[in-house]
Amino acid sequence: MTHAHMYSRFLASDPAWNGRFFTGVLTTGIYCLPSCHARKPRSENVRFFASCDEARAAGLRPCRKCHPDDFARGADPVLESIETLVGEVRGNPARFGDARAVVRRSGFGPTRCFELLRQHYHATPADLLLRARIEAARRLLLAGDSPLIEVAAGAGFESLSSFHEHFRAQNGMTPAAYRGLLSPGPFTVDLPPRYPLAHLLRTLGRDPQSVTERLSGTSYEASADLDGFPAALRFEFSKECATVALSDGAGAGPGWKPAAHRIAVGMLGLEQDAAGFSRLARRLGLARLVAGREGLRLIGTPSVLDGLLWSIIGQQINLPFACVLKRRLVENAGTRLPGGLFALPTAAALARLEAKDLRPWQYSRQKAEYLIGAARLVAAGTLDLAALPAMSATRAERTLLSVRGLGPWSVNYLMMRSLGFADCVPLGDTGVTSGLKALFRLEERPDVDATRRLMSVFSPHRSLATAHLWQINRPPP
Ligand SMILES: [Zn+2]
Questions:
Q1: Is 429 among the catalytic positions?
Q2: What domains lie within the chain, and their CATH numbers?
Q3: What is the pLDDT of residue 252?
Q4: What's the DSSP call for residue 288?
Q5: What is the pTM of this model?
Q6: Which of 225, 429, 447, 449 is catalytic?
Q7: Residue 249 scores a pLDDT above 80
């Protein structure tokens, strides 16, 4: 890395470079993380170091704003205290009467607490508490048959009607119907009013050659891991709802429905604040970004592993070729399910491959190594995919950036589509840059720093902004 390159990352306060180098400022005698928001010195007064030790050896001391030493030894006290807070909220949401109680418990002032939760969880205290209540309600509903009023109180809802309203909006079904997921047979997920179904179907059908999913009219089948059982799900869409069933001949464990429901909610993006994003776009005078597709959601992947494989396969190549590569991987390393679809290869199966095995399937040596390397981390338990969605965005991002082959694009793509984080930008994505060019009528596509700057106006909804930017240059479906 050249001085100029590191300096530009430092000017951009790019957290993706934290740990890769440290920045020393000769005029102040202080060293920082690249992400530090302290005032930026001129290039000639900056030196770069590979470690904190090197910076100290040069006579510099650590910055008191960004705490580079804490970062270097893996400690981050502010982040840890926010993570502890969120753990408490999720562990017992009924202890918190409202969002103000969350702020009080944080020990930070309201402004700082909002800032920290937005930065580290892409959420407000109220969002976070509501999510925790809904998650607790799901657990209580499946755990026994206590009356709904007790479930509502146990999860911390102030009334039965507010429980009902919020639960239904984020789950596409009533609490009673959710409890019904323990009985056999198909189930139904309601779509929000004016859900842009045609956009969903176009995206689900974008790879007609896929062997893990298949769209035919309003019927969609996809392979999925249901609590450890590889199976295929069938979704039948209408304007109002999606009916979800196991595909013909597919087997699954008795508890398949809650797992399938979670996949459906993620795929349909029911937890995303589409209305909030539309309001923001209009307030910014950018109603044209959402026109004709106001309820658009970012479509979730069936599993985190699916997102991980796709984010590596899709790097630096066009969509049709990425689809070919994925198909070859699945046909050769996945298993065929009754009904003809393939289950995604398991991490263990991929971990047994060698890079040369992927050569005949047209994988570059590098892509093959990245894919197998990531699969080996998962198979060995070093990278725990199941733990990622509950982590703070900051920790999930750091964890993923430490995986060889995952750069800022892949990590943000994965965080948006597989982990449900609301404020991500897949930097360097050509769909995003050409969307921004069209939206802001720019002469050319913005570079990484300009993309970051332009996208900042959409915070805390940058994942949904990305979903809309991907559509802006396409005719309506
Ligand atoms: Zn600093």
A1: yes
A2: 3-72 (3.40.10.10), 77-178 (1.10.10.60), 184-271 (3.30.310.20), 304-472 (1.10.340.30)
A3: 72
A4: G
A5: 0.86
A6: 429
A7: no
